[in-house]
Specification:
This protein has 624 residues and is α/β, with parallel strands linked by helices. It has 24 helices and 17 strands. The protein has four domains: 246 residues, Thiamin diphosphate (ThDP)-binding fold, Pyr/PP domains (Rossmann fold, 3-Layer(aba) Sandwich); 36 residues, no CATH class; 155 residues, Thiamin diphosphate (ThDP)-binding fold, Pyr/PP domains (Rossmann fold, 3-Layer(aba) Sandwich), CATH 3.40.50.970; 131 residues, 3-Layer(aba) Sandwich (Rossmann fold). Helix 13 packs parallel to helix 19. It binds thiamine diphosphate (TPP), 1-deoxy-D-xylulose-5-phosphate and magnesium ion (MG). The site of thiamine diphosphate has 22 residues, from loops. Homodimer.
């Protein structure tokens, strides 16, 4: 069956398992070739080809609700729901979203991007069905990583208690992004191997071979022992019917399990064992998480095609500095909520394993565990993507900021991230964190200042301090012999300072400082002179510098790659209002909208953040 011809899952319902196997092969080939050009979450998707085909064969989407947790593994779902011809635009500007999207298809009943939401969403849909007296299946598909997220456990607690009809698919491939961690992961391993039970069973069978008359008793004994060693008991005790473990690449086993779950009253969980990256050797052999999600690659060699760049990745700049300080001080520890590879902490993990914690998909736990560490004199550094920090807002407020604990928060992927789109743009953290009374927020203008600000953070003992850094690489390469110096908290500096400047641009981050410099060069042609201030401390602002700025130029422009509401522009506006000043302030940033996927320069120009657009806005400001 040609993939381009599949415009509805109904088209696969008549296929035999043999035909489905052929289709699965075609889908794998299509995914490998497409993602080689577009990039994407190839590993996760190659692991769920048979599973997704079986779900669409044995359930009736969109009447039956399929909810993909995280949603990064929904490419096959999109192929089967008539979107294969759009895959060339996967994760590109105005192209196919890399996650389920309600406005793309009626089959995308649940959007995600952040982990561990599918069970709660499913519970909501199942309750609605029951209240309205309707009759359809609700089927959340959640991975062995995502199910360890706190929200998932909150939902299981409710689902089991209420005995609400639903079929939960646990897709267990032993991987989160990196190899999965935690006690639940160990439980799944036991489940997969039944090591305890198999050993016991073999021992009993061995003994029995001499006493065949005891076979019945022994079989009864084995069953009761199985009940105790089988960790399915975890789900059974929560009130779910545990089905499995089954081979997630066998259409026969999937069909049998799904049909059994349909007949089961109350909630059931089918434990599906899959291989992440299946059918593509480079991805199958990946044991660190490279092939979980990546940019374009060469199919034959598996070589990832990297973008040219002078500098190191921002994550490496920060984590190398952290490793330097932690190597000399055992009080310094690194915590990551399931992103060791993305946050460039694998070297730290290898060199200082006792000072490293991958807590799994558990942002709330990560932040509050850091509070516990700091409360007894340690210096924890939590590396957390801006977007995932949203998960731990109360922990930051209630457990860290309020107690003024010395926690360093490394806000990674700060700013627009591009291909991951709406659910991952790092544009809300300033509005969230700037509202906390005691937390300092910094962002370096280049790799050198990043080292200065890391030294500042390590030596800062007045409470929580956050350092923001973007996705991608710095434009500056770090000199090995550079000796970082501490920066006084709340101090800005002039990047460009003219005697008779007409306008002051206040901004922060390497990309926005470079943008401001381009703007000043454009405006020189119109005899408009610009001062540029590096607001490397977003909070607290530099009050002395603000006094200078507001006296020197009537016109002030704040440029930032975050939502305007609650950003630095708001803080500067508050300063002007609170001091009853008459300055004219333009705030350039993101209005109250979500920014979809695409390449960052294109997304920025849509927001009005390009040197030409800003120059035009300043010219208009001057003429108003
Ligand atoms: C709240 C949150 N934290 C972290 C992530 C980053 N993340 C995306 S997928 C993933 C691993 C998910 O593992 P699993 O559920 O087992 O799915 P698999 O990729 O193995 O199919 C992580 C940590 C996220 N999307 N959301
Ligand atoms: C789906 C998910 O949340 C992660 O895979 C995320 O896409 C990783 O982002 P980076 O590629 O920026 O590490
Ligand atoms: Mg997994």
């Amino acid at each position: 069956m040609e993939l381009q011809k599949i415009n509805s899952p109904k088209m696969i319902k008549q296929l035999t398992n043999k035909e489905l196997e052929i289709l699965a092969k075609d889908i794998r080939k299509f995914l490998i070739e497409t993602c080689a050009v577009t990039g994407g979450h190839i590993g996760a998707n190659l692991g769920v080809v048979e599973l997704t085909l079986a779900l669409h064969k044995h359930f009736d989407s969109p009447t039956d609700k399929l909810l993909f947790d995280v949603g990064h593994q929904a490419y096959i779902h999109k192929i089967l729901t008539g979107r294969s011809d759009a895959f060339h635009s996967l994760r590109q500007y105005k192209g196919l979203c890399g996650f389920p999207k309600r406005n793309e298809s009626e089959h995308d009943v649940w959007e995600a991007g952040h982990s561990s939401t599918s069970l709660s969403g499913a519970m909501g849909m199942a309750k609605a069905r029951d209240i309205m007296g309707e009759n359809y299946h609700v089927v959340p598909i959640i991975g062995d990583g995502a199910i360890t997220g706190g929200m998932a456990l909150e939902a299981l607690n409710h689902i089991g208690h209420d005995q609400t009809n639903m079929t939960i698919i646990l897709n267990d491939n032993e991987m989160s992004i990196a190899p999965n961690v935690g006690a639940m992961h160990n439980m799944f391993t036991r489940l997969r191997t039944n090591a305890h039970y198999n050993r016991f069973k073999n021992d009993v069978d061995g003994v029995l071979s001499q006493f065949p008359m005891m076979r019945k008793t022994a079989d009864r004994m084995k069953d009761s022992v199985k009940y105790f060693v089988m960790d399915g008991i975890f789900f059974e005790e929560l009130g779910l019917q545990y089905i499995g473990p089954i081979d997630g690449h066998s259409f026969e086993e999937l069909e049998e399990a799904i049909e059994l779950s349909k007949k089961t009253k109350g909630p059931s969980i089918i434990h599906v064992i899959t291989k992440k990256g299946k059918g593509f050797k480079h991805a199958e052999d990946d044991m660190i998480g490279t092939w979980h999600g990546l940019g374009p690659y060469k199919i034959e060699t598996g070589e990832v095609i990297k973008s040219e760049s002078v500098g190191k990745s921002w994550g490496s700049i920060i984590s190398d500095e952290l490793l330097k300080y932690a190597s000399e001080d055992r009080r310094i520890v690194a915590i990551t909520p399931a992103m060791p590879v993305g946050s460039k902490l694998t070297k730290f993990q290898q060199e200082l394993p006792d000072q490293f914690f991958d807590v799994g998909i558990a942002e709330q736990h990560a932040i509050t565990m850091a509070a516990g560490l700091a409360a007894v004199g340690m210096k924890p550094f939590v590396a957390i993507y801006s977007t995932f920090l949203q998960r731990a807002y109360d922990q930051l407020l209630h457990d860290v900021d309020r107690m003024k604990l010395n926690v360093i928060v490394g806000i990674d992927r700060a700013g627009l991230v591009g291909a991951d789109g709406e659910t991952h743009q790092g544009v809300f953290d300033i509005s969230i964190v700037a509202g906390l009374p005691n937390t300092v927020i910094m962002m370096p203008k280049d790799a050198f200042e990043a080292q200065d600000l890391m030294k500042t953070a390590i030596e800062y003992n007045e409470g929580p301090i956050a350092i923001r850094y973007p996705r991608g690489n710095s434009l500056t390469s770090v000199a090995q012999d550079y000796v970082p110096s501490r920066v006084e908290i709340g101090t800005w500096d002039y990047i460009v300072e003219d005697v008779n400047s007409d306008v002051t641009i206040i901004t922060y981050s390497e990309s926005m400082i470079h943008m401001a410099i381009e703007v000043s060069q454009l405006l020189k042609q119109d005899n408009i002179s610009i001062d540029i201030v590096n607001a490397r401390f977003i909070k607290p602002i530099d009050k002395t510098m603000m006094q200078t700025i507001t006296r020197k130029t009537k016109n002030i422009v704040v440029i930032e790659e975050v939502i305007k509401h609650g950003g630095l522009g708001s803080i500067v506006a508050n300063y002007i209002v609170d001091h009853r000043l008459s300055n004219v302030l333009d705030r350039i940033g993101i209005d109250d909208v979500y920014i979809e996927h695409g390449d960052v320069p294109k997304l920025l120009s849509d927001i009005g953040i390009s040197s030409e657009q800003i120059a035009a806005q300043i010219k208009k400001m001057m003429n108003d």
